[in-house]
Write a structure and sequence with these properties.
Elements lengths: L20 H22 L4 H18 L7 E2 L10 E2 L6 H5 L5 H12 L3 H14 L1 H14 L1 E2 L1 H51 L1
Antiparallel strand pairs: 1-2, 1-3
Helix pairs in contact: 1-2, 1-4, 1-5, 2-6, 6-7
Length: 201
């Protein structure tokens, strides 16, 4: 089975959706590859900004794919990573063991479920590109605050969603008014052209 043969598990943003089987694996892969993909899209000028975008990519994927959020951080973990974005709070035991890299985790899951990793990565890139303002907003907040709880991540993302919705509505209203103005000018031009034609007869 390929990723395209399976419906994307995107539901209401912020909700938590318990999945099983292949859907769960696809979601885990998408969350894992979201960080590196966000890095490629973001092209950040500093290391801290790059880490912020990377972790924000993970969190936005978790948020959109209905996975639990336990928060994110750009504070380096010696022996682990430059930051974190997790679905559960790290325990002392977890901190003692070096974490698996995003690339290895996604490869292992894809092999386990016999999925085409390139297809899942393409779907993830499409998802992040469509919601890039969310990634950018959360990345900026991470760079500023260094560490954000899961609850605060959700608040930031919901606020960004509402802002995008307001912007979309404003653009739609502007387009509607522009269309009305075009119709008015067009009708006036037609009437003027019709009058000029009648005058010439």
């Amino acid at each position: 089975m390929t990723a395209t043969a399976m419906p994307a598990p995107v539901i209401a943003p912020g909700a938590v959706l318990p999945l099983s089987g292949i859907e769960w694996v696809v979601r885990e892969i998408m969350v894992s590859v979201a960080g590196p993909i966000a890095e490629r899209i973001g092209r950040c000028p500093t290391v801290e900004a790059l880490v912020g975008v990377h972790e924000a990519g993970h969190v936005v994927a978790q948020f959109l794919l209905a996975e639990r959020l336990a928060g994110a951080s750009v504070i380096p973990w010696p022996g682990h990573s430059q930051g974190r974005a997790s679905a559960c709070k790290p325990t002392p035991e977890l901190l003692k063991t070096p974490s698996c890299t995003d690339e290895k985790k996604s490869r292992d899951y894809a092999m386990l479920a016999n999925l085409d990793l390139a297809e899942v990565e393409a779907a993830t890139q499409e998802l992040l590109s469509a919601h890039w303002p969310l990634v950018r907003r959360l990345a900026d907040a991470l760079v500023e605050r260094k560490e954000i709880s899961g609850r605060r991540c959700r608040q930031i993302l919901f606020n960004a969603l509402r802002k995008n919705l307001r912007r979309a509505r404003a653009l739609a209203e502007r387009d509607r008014r522009n269309h009305q103005e075009f119709q008015r000018v067009f009708r006036a031009a037609l009437l003027q052209h019709g009058s000029a034609t009648v005058g010439q007869c």
